[in-house]
Write a structure and sequence with these properties.
- This protein has 3 helices and 7 strands; from the N terminus they run E-E-H-E-H-E-E-E-E-H.
- The strands form 3 sheets. Strands 4-5-6 form a 3-stranded antiparallel sheet, with helices on one face.
- The longest helix has 15 residues.
- The two termini are 30 Å apart.
Length: 136
């Protein structure tokens, strides 16, 4: 199966069918097998430093989005000292013990491994799991 690149070049679908690495129309499209099936130029992936990690799926979560997500699942965040934040459960969460999370710096983006680690802590302490969330 191949792609007819000619129909995408300079067309309205260039953003959807462009490579996120070179920002050009896809040439010999490849995927890394991430859940979102992002596509990249084969040549771009050959020069990518982390060949088994999707550059788009590995972007992480901006800290402000993380704060909003914690608030949406009934946690109130309070900055304590330095980069430390204390999240206190409210509402229907039975366990009322706070959970501490460090704000990432200098770029204020939680990497996927940090999000995963926080998710595991939320599951262990409060019984929350991924089936309760949706990615938008």
């Amino acid at each position: 199966m191949g792609w007819d690149i000619e129909k995408f070049v300079d067309g309205p679908d260039l953003d959807e069918f462009g490579c996120a690495i070179c920002l050009d129309a896809l040439r010999d499209p490849q995927t890394l097998g991430c859940p979102s099936e992002h596509l990249f130029c084969k040549e771009c992936l050959d020069g990518y430093s982390r060949p088994n990690v999707c550059p788009l799926s590995n972007l992480g979560v901006p800290w402000i989005d993380f704060l909003h997500a914690m608030n949406a699942i009934s946690f109130t965040g309070h900055k304590t000292v330095g980069s430390s934040w204390k999240f206190i459960p409210t509402g229907s969460i039975v366990n009322n013990a706070p959970i501490s999370v460090h704000e990432p710096h200098p770029d204020a983006t939680q990497r996927p491994n940090q999000v995963s680690w926080t998710g595991k802590r939320l599951k262990k302490a409060y019984g929350l799991d991924m089936n309760m969330f949706s990615v938008v």
